[in-house]
Write a structure and sequence with these properties.
By secondary structure, the protein is mainly α. Helix content is 82%, strand content 0%.
């Protein structure tokens, strides 16, 4: 057994360590992911802050258009999670050259998928949005946003594969740098293009979509540069002439296919939430978009620890140590809970200040408070759920994870229907669906992992 002498040396960590990582080692892997996600989330916050100053219709349209784009993004992200899990497993098995092949084949596959999705959305988005949006003003602005934003699908999918590769080989620090570049470029161009500053055209909500596309192109360029500059391409046999085994794609799809379905189920439920609120009115949708922006931002540590969790779980299984999985998940969950609480407490204390970042309308701030308090409670349960669920995904039992997701969404949608349609309760009660959803997901994931049948299946 090799001791870890440098916490930043994740090549040694990934290939040689045969013990459960310490809290400090888990944190050293995870904090660059947290920083990267914080930086990326600046895009959503920037659009909300800027568009809130343009108009309520633009703010509501960005919520629907942005959520719709996230559904498309999730397809690439979910596929790349399968890629990440397999890359980490191959490193655990000391087969880095196979990790390189998984990365390259995933890259080719997602570029093809991006081209197909781009064509379909560019043709059919008017029909889709006409079907789900009742307000003519919001419909037109959502369509305008997505017609620019969809060009970024190519860069989005390519970036997903690079993130999977760097997380899978435990070089997460490059994710943080990349995301700072992404966020910085987006803030600058969003300001210039939304408001028409310094000679740029005043494009409004279309400028928000175009700014993000420009930022994603720059971010992907950074990934390409750093891969050729610092990665040991000989070790992973990256971009070397080789014969590809197309069974690798089948293997990735076996893992990723159910992750894609799971994420689509989750996002369709989330998208349904916004559509339901949009039918209540433009004002309610604006409140929901503000609360959503804070909520999603505070969820970032949970996503980061979840990403680290499925990577670490897959790696220690690859090293032949499946018995350590539950102990590892408990350690990661503890750190995640602490990180979430460290954000929730000041967010509760300074709620007026935080909400004022998104709107100067005092009435809108006051009407957002009850929903805001509800999502703070949901975040605590979320911190427990993410790691047990992602730990299950890391074992490779993604079919079981999809079924658990489906059960959670059923609870979510039934609760949403009862609250909004049957009882017509105030907006803040609609957000309690999040509490029901995460509680169900946590319980089902915990029970499945305790059963231990996941130990029997290799990937």
């Amino acid at each position: 057994m090799v001791n870890v002498k440098k916490l930043s040396d994740f090549d040694t960590f990934a290939e040689d360590i045969m013990k459960i990582p310490s809290h400090k080692e888990i944190w050293m892997l995870t904090y660059p992911i947290i920083l990267s996600l914080f930086a990326e989330n600046v895009i959503n916050i920037t659009d909300t802050i800027f568009l809130a100053r343009v108009g309520e219709a633009e703010l509501g349209a960005s919520a629907i258009g942005g959520t719709f784009y996230v559904i498309l993004f999730i397809i690439g992200l979910a596929f790349s999670i399968g890629t990440q899990i397999i890359i980490s497993r191959r490193l655990g098995e000391n087969k880095p050259e196979q990790a390189g092949s998984v990365f390259e084949l995933s890259l080719f596959f997602l570029v093809f998928a991006a081209a197909l999705i781009f064509a379909l959305i560019y043709i059919f988005s008017p029909v889709i949005f006409r079907w789900i949006i009742s307000s003519e003003d919001i419909y037109e602005k959502t369509l305008l946003y997505i017609n620019y934003r969809i060009f970024g699908i190519f860069f989005t999918y390519i970036a997903c594969v690079f993130r999977a590769f760097y997380t899978g080989i435990f070089k997460t620090k490059y994710l943080a740098v990349n995301s700072v570049v992404l966020a910085g470029v987006n803030v600058v161009f969003a300001y210039l293009l939304i408001f028409g500053k310094f000679g740029f055209p005043e494009m409004g909500i279309a400028g928000a979509g175009l700014a993000t596309v420009i930022a994603e192109f720059v971010a992907v360029s950074y990934f390409v540069f750093i891969t050729f500059r610092v990665v040991d391409r000989k070790k992973y046999r990256l971009f070397k002439r080789k014969t590809y085994d197309l069974r690798v794609i089948k293997n990735i799809l076996d893992v990723s296919g159910f992750i894609i379905l799971q994420h689509l189920i989750s996002l369709m439920a989330w998208f349904s939430f916004f559509v339901v609120i949009e039918h209540r009115g433009q004002h309610e949708l604006a409140i929901t978009n503000i609360v959503r922006s804070v909520y999603v931002f505070l969820m970032i540590p949970g996503w980061a620890f979840g990403s680290a969790c499925n990577t670490l779980v897959s790696n220690i299984i690859g090293q032949g140590n499946p018995g350590g999985v539950l102990q590892l998940i408990r350690k990661i969950t503890f750190l995640c809970f602490v990180a979430i609480i460290a954000l929730v407490i000041p967010a509760q204390i300074f709620h007026d200040t935080i909400l004022s970042w998104f709107t100067a309308d005092k009435a809108l701030i006051n009407e957002s408070l009850n929903s805001y308090y509800m999502v703070m409670l949901a975040l605590v349960i979320f911190s427990l759920t993410m790691n047990y669920y992602n730990g299950l995904i890391g074992t490779g039992r993604t079919r079981a994870a999809m079924y658990i997701e489906l059960l959670g969404v059923v609870f979510y949608l039934v609760t949403l229907y009862l609250i909004v349609n049957r009882f017509s309760l105030p907006l803040e009660f609609a957000w309690s669906c999040e509490i029901v959803y995460f509680t169900a997901m946590f319980l089902f994931s915990y029970i499945y992992l305790k059963k231990g049948s996941w130990k029997l299946r290799p990937i």
